[in-house]
């Protein structure tokens, strides 16, 4: 009798192991495809402890800063862990997720989302799922879900813990060759998380340049910021906090001044690029894809140049060009140059013909 029970228990355990071995890859594959999924999967595909910089933030990150260009010109490997309308509450958890496989010398945080009340961001759980549904399954992902998803605001936590419940109707994804690369959520990103945009959406330069004064950010966002800063200090980790150039308001500029005071009080640097339009060479009528919200490829080239100069002036990185471990980065840079030339020509033609992007709601 005892032998039969042990045999049955062993069979059940074996079944559960096989079930999970199949469930997890299928879960990854049926997650809705798109740039965010590819970006996170690409992060996990990077070799352990090879990234110099991890950049975390919302949608200003991946169209503004061309990691292949930075690599090709400096030998610095930078990768973005970014999602649309990313809640600042997620930043600390993304640092901890990155630390599981990487040991970057520097984290860069894009700060635009700290001006928006978290209550508004929580009202659309897609902004939370953009992070949690693109993390690999782990105990840390479980903790991240628990931290970001208020139990009282959702019908059930189970679809957040097991996102296959939400995406179970996406079986067509299993027939897509591109998604088989996501079986283990380790699929190389050709442009290292960067997104090309060749649209043109002009707007006048903001008139709040030089705006003085401070305006407090939403209370809960200040709490998240201080929690992030405490975490970084506890890790003895260097960090840079940036604001990418965009069509900001006077109130937003004052909130960035408020953030800067907090960040610098903790001993970290704060770089508001909206104070350096001339140095960047940004042209609001030509260098944005969507009317001042996000740069196109030409604007990204300028922003990457400016950030590159800042990094070389204020930090010390080892130039890893020529290292065989970074062959994929060399290829990414070569591919970026070809695509960049095509994007530059398309943008030039659209400006000449005044073929501007459709006006619509833009992600932050």
Features:
364 residues; alpha/beta; 5-stranded parallel beta sheet; 5 strands; 49% helix; 7% strand
* Count of individual helical segments: 16
Please give the order of strands in the largest beta sheet: 2-1-3-4-5
How can the largest sheet be summarized? 5 strands, parallel
CA-based gyration radius: 22 Å
Mean pLDDT rating: 92
**Fraction of residues in β-strands:** 5-15%
Q: What structural class is derived from the secondary structure elements? A: alpha/beta
Query: Which descriptor suits the 3D outline?
Result: globular
Count of DSSP E strands?
A: 5
Portion in helices: 40-55%
What separation lies between the terminal Cα atoms?
A: 63 Å
Q: Show unreliable segments.
A: none
């Amino acid at each position: 009798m005892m032998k039969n029970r042990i045999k049955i228990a062993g069979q059940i355990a074996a079944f559960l192991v096989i079930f999970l071995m199949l469930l997890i890859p299928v879960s990854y594959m049926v997650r809705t495809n798109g740039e965010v999924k590819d970006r996170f999967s690409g992060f996990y595909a990077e070799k352990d402890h090879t990234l110099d910089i991890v950049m975390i933030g919302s949608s200003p990150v991946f169209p503004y800063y061309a990691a292949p260009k930075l690599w090709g010109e400096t030998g610095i490997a930078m990768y973005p862990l970014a999602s649309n309308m990313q809640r600042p509450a997620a930043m600390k958890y993304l640092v901890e997720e990155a630390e599981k496989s990487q040991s970057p010398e520097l984290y860069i945080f894009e700060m635009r989302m700290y001006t928006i009340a978290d209550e508004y961001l929580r009202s659309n759980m897609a902004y939370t799922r953009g992070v949690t549904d693109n993390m690999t399954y782990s105990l840390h992902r479980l903790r991240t879900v628990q931290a970001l998803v208020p139990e009282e605001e959702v019908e059930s936590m189970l679809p957040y813990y097991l996102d296959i419940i939400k995406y179970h109707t996406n079986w067509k994804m299993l027939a897509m060759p591109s998604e088989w690369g996501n079986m283990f959520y380790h699929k190389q990103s050709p442009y290292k998380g960067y997104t090309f945009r060749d649209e043109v959406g002009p707007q006048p330069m903001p008139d709040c340049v030089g705006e003085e004064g401070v305006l407090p950010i939403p209370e809960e966002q200040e709490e998240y910021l201080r929690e992030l800063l405490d975490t970084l200090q506890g890790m003895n980790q260097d960090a840079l906090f940036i604001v990418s150039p965009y069509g900001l308001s006077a109130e937003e500029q004052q909130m960035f001044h408020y953030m800067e005071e907090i960040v610098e009080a903790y001993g970290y640097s704060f770089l508001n690029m909206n104070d350096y339009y001339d140095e960047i060479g940004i042209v609001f009528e030509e260098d944005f894809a969507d009317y001042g919200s996000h740069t196109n490829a030409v604007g990204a080239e300028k922003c990457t140049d400016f950030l590159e100069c800042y990094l070389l002036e204020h930090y010390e990185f080892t130039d890893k060009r020529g290292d065989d471990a970074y062959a994929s980065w060399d290829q990414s840079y070569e591919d970026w140059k070809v695509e960049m030339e095509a994007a530059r020509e398309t943008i030039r033609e659209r400006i000449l013909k005044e073929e501007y992007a459709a006006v619509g709601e833009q992600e932050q």
